[in-house]
Amino acid sequence: GIIFSNNEPWLQVRRFSLSTLRNFGMGKRSIEERIQEESDYLLEEINKTKGTPFDPTYMLSCAVSNVICSVVFGKRYDYKDKKFLALMKNTNNIFEMTNSHWGQLYQMFSKILDYLPGPQHNIFAEIDALKAFVAEEVKLHQASLDPNSPQDFIDCFLSKMQEEKDHPNSSFHMKNLITCTFDLFFAGTETTSTTVRYGLLLLLKYPKIQ
């Protein structure tokens, strides 16, 4: 993947990922269209609350996640979609576990805790579930791939795999595709939605600014 890789394989995949994401609008004005479209869906969900108090965490995560999905998977999901709901739950559980006392202990003493029972092992089941979702999306993309007209990040990575299939040490293979897609989706969703949530919290705290 990108997050836990290093040296030359990391450089290759990072360079490719940045270039591909830019082609699909990241860092450009064209990404605004995807964000504007998703903000309409978000406002629609907020309006359903009819002014009653609500926790925006889930809605914001869905909105941000869908912008990433549109670039990585080439589509957005309805906020009530069962697969999407499971995906968001996995993401939330991983972050909760990572930030728990057990999660932090595991990061420091993983070699010891690997052999001891405890909730630290649950995180791997959640990560596997998220990667299984990505793997399913990759299969669908393989079936409909047109190398001359890539529609999203996965299509571009699959095309790059084809180009480098005769290079035995290539960083572009199926395992890396699934891990890179997981990294982009996972790292982008929580960070951005948390930032937006804190922005809303500050607006509530300072009504004059609001």
TrEMBL record:
Pfam families: p450. It is an enzyme of class 1 (oxidoreductase). Its cofactor is heme. One of its GO terms (biological process) is xenobiotic metabolic process. Its EC number is 1.14.14.1. This is unspecific monooxygenase. Keywords: Endoplasmic reticulum, Heme, Iron, Membrane, Metal-binding, Microsome, Monooxygenase, Oxidoreductase. It comes from the Eukaryota. Belongs to the cytochrome P450 family. It comes from Acanthisitta chloris (rifleman). It is a peripheral membrane protein. GO terms for molecular function: arachidonate epoxygenase activity; heme binding; iron ion binding; oxidoreductase activity, acting on paired donors, with incorporation or reduction of molecular oxygen, reduced flavin or flavoprotein as one donor, and incorporation of one atom of oxygen. GO terms for cellular component: endoplasmic reticulum membrane. It is found in: Endoplasmic reticulum membrane; Microsome membrane.
